[in-house]
Amino acid sequence: MALRVTTQRRVLQGLGNGVLVLMLLWTAIPFYWMIATSLKHDKEIYGYEATLIPERPTLANYATVFRETPYMLYLRNSVAVAVGSTVLSMIIAVLGAYAIARLDFPGRALLARGLVFTYLVPTSLLFIPMFAMMSMLRLTDSLYGLTIAYLGFDVPFCTWLLMGYFKSVPVELEEAARVDGCNRVSALVRVVLPMSLPALVVVTFFSFTHAWNEFLYAHVFTSTTSARTVTTGLVNFMSQDVFFWGPLMASTVMSALPPVLMFLVFQRWVVKGLTLGGVKG
Amino acid sequence: MATSTTVSLPLPSSRRRLGWRGERIQRFLTHDRTLGYLFLFPAILVIVGLVAYPFASAIVMTFQEKTAGAPGRFIGLDNYRELFSSEQFLRTVFNTFIYTAVGVGLKFFLGLSMALVLNQERFCNNLFRSFLLVPWAIPTVMSALNWRWIFDDASGLINNILVRLNLIEETISWLSNPHLAMLSVVAVVVWQGTPFFTMSFLAGLQAIPKELYEAAEIDGASVLQQFKHITLPRLQPIFITAVMLSAILTSAAIQFVLILTNGGPADRTMIFSVLSYHLALGGAQRLGMGAAVSLIFFPILVVFIVFLTRRMLREKGE
Fold it and tell me: Is B18 within 8 Å of A64 (Cβ atoms)?
């Protein structure tokens, strides 16, 4: 019987290798096409002379993006909004999560529930009233408006994630610090935060990439070039009359790079944070 | 609850020597109730201002005829009445269900297969795992743009290859053929979303104690039996969480459809988020109608949201 199971395992291993190859191809081919297109001359991209592999690779498309489009401005806007909303949501979430994890006050459980609930309400249910609100407050076409709007997603999520980590820091350590004369605030800063470093990294990763990737709010709240982020800027390139796929793919490659690199660096922690409750499907 | 009980310790004598003001601040900062509300105040402000208030005003809007920047006019249930008698809306409801069900179903199936494969031992497995997860890390807008180019009628990758292999004579319009458009959009959704399932399921698989399989093997259980009686039951809680979360986010995701087909051809790929976008921000700017479209779907979403909220808090020991 044992032998039979070993044979079964060997068959499964072979099958697994086959499936893996298919999965790798399915994942890799779109990447390949994106990168290959960005390195081609127009002649190799369109028409009868179109190629599958760039015959004379060129960086001309990348040069075009920087020379002829406001891509640099979009990039700057994305960085500004991402950094701004990450810092703000981090501060708000650390304080909120600490209160829920460690302090005892009426309404605590209700607030915890409210936070998770808010995180799960998708923005496609909220963008219309948010647009009306932003127009009323004159926060459309503004990086401040966008930074604030992103807190609506980042704060609930970060608070929820940090809450769990804070709870895992032994209370005794904090009590010891307080016996030594620390108050709540300094105990949080000196004991709890240093011990939650992995969680802080994950939270930073998620709020930064969320702001970087977000499309709907950025698209709805901005109508001029000045406050466009990378995602809306690129979609705008596409919806113009001429489809210039070479430069478009060049800017796509560049814009996808920061989150992908961050993901590869922080992967171990991100996967752990994600499997604690899941992020985007 | 157990972790949050505070032991009120007597203040060390050095602190007692602080002045009147210092002592008041000190006392304030040791008081759970005041400190709790103080710490949570910014978060509450965010929830109320950026989620609760907009949501409430969306409900009000659905009973109004309203454009941006102008006050609305109360029209009762007219928006809802108009929607339910519109063929476009009924088609949208149908499309949204198909899109979500097929998308989540395929992501689940592929994600589980990928997780099982990656859970086997092999050379360079970690590298493969990292690579297979990358589509999830790419901004969805970038993936959608890339796929729009892959599906391109004249020079896209798929038509390019099919023509080369002499499999077709005329190029195929993947995104504008009424029979193919939905399928194409779902393929992109699946490409982008499968890694999320892979990650969740792989973490679940790795948490199953090896001893269970060893014991089953000694008892003569076949690999299939082990899968059925150990793997599946152990993964079930993760299945439920992942499917629900993905159903909420897939049904509500707007960028794939908006970028790939914009709801066309002839509303074949119109889903509720895109319809709501078109009604509210397309030419006529009917904010009330747009809000009504999303709100009709909210009762279904809320069942999932409430259920998930409970699960996610239980994980955190609330």
Answer: no
